[in-house]
Design brief:
368 residues, alpha+beta, 6-stranded mixed beta sheet, 6-stranded antiparallel beta sheet, 12 strands
Length: 368
Amino acid sequence: MKKVSFFLFLAGALVMMACGKSSKAGAQFLENLGIDGGQVQMLGDTIDVRIDTTLFHLNTEQGRALLGGIVPEWAQDTAEVENVASIAAFKTLDNGISLAFLWQEWGDGGSMYVCSYDKQGKFVDGVEYINWHALNQSSLEEGSSFFLNWEERCGGNFTPEGFTIHRIYKGMRTDSEMSDFVPQWTIEKKYVYKVDDKGVMTLAEIQPAQVGKVPAEVLTLDDLRDMAKLPASDKQALDKLNKKAAANGVAQADESSKIFSEVENAIGTIFERHPLEFLQWMINHPGEQSSLNRFIEKADGYGYIDRATFDAQLEKLTDEAGKEYLSNLTKNWFNSEKEAVVAEDDFGDDMSYEDSQAVYDEEGNLVQ
């Protein structure tokens, strides 16, 4: 009996030592940036991070260091990250790579990311964990008196090879804003990630399941939103988006639709993170080889790609024929922020960018 007690004590002590070692490693990773690790939630085997999790607000220097790799604009020297970026939790994996769950505010919304850092605390990779705008959206369902509520929840767990994000996406209806919501359908997905000993993430598998009759548009949108679950390091992101953009329900999507907007959002994210690679991909996939052209032609009008940033990256290319091709593809973009302001002043907020570019003949007929 004494031997059994001794071995139980020894096992418990080894576990405590291992946890202590992991805690110190994680805390050191944060303390290198001046963050008190004791004030940030250290995760165990389960990922239980929500928007209402206690957040440790980051100053500008900390925000740039932790978020600059996943949100490139925060890497700028002029970026003011303070009070808009926070860390919710962290985890140190068995291979010594640290993961941080970071909350980034976006006006009246925000996103939470899972980012990896090497043993020196340098950013390596990252992926979106959840987007606030998908958490709770209510809108009047077209053609009925019902309100439709879209709800998304995330959780997950850590594995010997990395981690898994479990996302639950529900559509619920009610006959008034005050009534209880009744679930109509559910989409569940598990995103299985591997994290190598350098901190590079790989989305190894998506395990989908659904309950109830999910509207076709919702399924299409949900498939497009999987783009946000690709790690920032994924070099095949544009190939994957190009394939999705060619599918039924996307290729014919109206410019005012959520589907069109979702594709443009993915385009903007990829360009922001890898601008030169993005431009080179477009040059290598001219004409019908790219299903993204019709989306890119409108990308600046809706603010997904900044014209000045695009032009600055374009000038870095040495392929003159390629530069000319991209210039022609984006010839209808606003030439500057000043021109965009003039267009808005001349045509008003209610007129679309396409309408503002319309050309009429002397008899008032639309010619362009």
